[in-house]
Amino acid sequence: MTLLALETSCDETSVAVVRAGEILSNIVASQIELHAEYGGVVPELAAREHLRNLIPVTQAALRAAGVTVTELDAVAATQGPGLASALMVGFKAAQALAFARRKPFVGIHHHEAHLYSPWISGNPARAHFDEFQPNVSLIVSGGHTMLVHVAAELKHRVLGGTIDDAAGECFDKTGKLMGLPYPAGAEIDRLAEQGNAKAFSFPRPLMNDPNDDFSFSGLKTSVRYFLRDHPGLLDDPPALRDFCASVQAAIVEVLVSKTIRAAKRLGVRCITASGGVTCNRSLRDELAKACGRAGFALCLAEKSLCTDNAAMIGILAERKLLAGAAGPEFDGDIAPGWALA
Ligand code: KG4
Ligand code: ZN
Questions:
Q1: Which of 26, 155, 268, 340 has the most CB atoms around its CB within 10 Å?
Q2: What secondary structure does DSSP assign to 286-325, as a single string?
């Protein structure tokens, strides 16, 4: 089955072609620079940019895959969650294409797609879906932080999530207080690399609570007070690196310890992670160390597939269609607030 997938839930316009669990092409047009001057994603601007980019990105994805529109067997798009005005663009375009070509259409849950992105391995441009194992999956991005038990392919249950800010938001808001451009996660990661993570002590919210939930707003507040009380810190490069390493360590320790604990409790043998924050070097290293100590296999999404992309939408859509899933009718609507069950 040759399937075209569209992702426009936030600030990446992405189109992929997949076939038999293989990515034939995956083009991502990021809008990061457009939104940076506003310090966050502006929904109307995102939607306009998707409108502008969708056809050229689709043409590029088809060209890179060596596939014409007439060869497509199915079309998929992100149905939710996400920004309504952004979702509409890709969802309706995909539906219209499927309608015109009289092909099946599948609407995909963005986070369910993240759950399967760690299983896509190899060269990201031509990667395959590997053999799946039951796992506990950590999804960490700018908008979401959640732990999910994936008991079998297409069978999952959310264990917990953030009750306030997402982990990526904590990186971004810390960066904002430091005067860094949005999004700041990658820059804090870079600064933290040569810092001492034990230099300053920041809270590890909910780390020892018995549930699988997260909370990062208290940490953000303590970062704000810390910077207020250390006014010279931003002008002292070594102290700044220590500060970044210390904040990052607090976020990473909470994420790693709660993920490992959930996996032990549920008796799975594998842990996976995806979402933009999974690009973080310390998170990748600390998860690897903790999984090594506890005897879990670790399957991290490729960095290029951690951030939003249409390949993960297509890979899941094809598996759903092959499993007999019926997509929404052609009058089906976007679901901006769709929570993963
Ligand atoms: O998944 P993503 O591209 O978009 C969504 O939010 O859906 O994730 C973006 C988030 C931003 O908060 C960004 O700061 C964070 O991922 N991020 C990182 C790193 N790279 C991206 N956070 C920490 N370390 C990184 N290396
Ligand atoms: Zn995402």
A1: 26
A2: HHHHHHHHHT-EEEEPPHHHHS--HHHHHHHHHHHHHTT-
Residue matched to tokens 């993570």: 197
Structure tokens at 74: 């199915």
- Segment 192-213, tens digit of pLDDT: 999 999 999 999 999 999 999 9
| Pocket flag, ligand 1, residue 251 (CB < 6 Å) | no
Residue nearest atom 1 in ligand 1 by C-alpha distance: 276
Compute the distance from residue 112 Cα to the ligand 2 centre, in Å: 10
- Ligand closest to CA 31: 1
Nearest CA to ligand 1 atom 23: 185
CB of residue 244 inside a 6 A radius of ligand 1: no
Which CATH class name applies to 2-125+305-322?
A: alpha beta
What homologous superfamily is domain 133-301 in, according to CATH? ATPase, nucleotide binding domain (3.30.420.40)
What size, in residues, is the chain? Answer: 341
Reported as a single tens digit per residue, the pLDDT across 57-103 is 999 999 999 999 999 999 999 999 999 999 999 999 999 999 999 99
Spans of the chain, pLDDT less than 50: none
Q: Which one-letter DSSP state was computed for residue 40?
A: S
Percent share of the chain, pLDDT over 70: 100
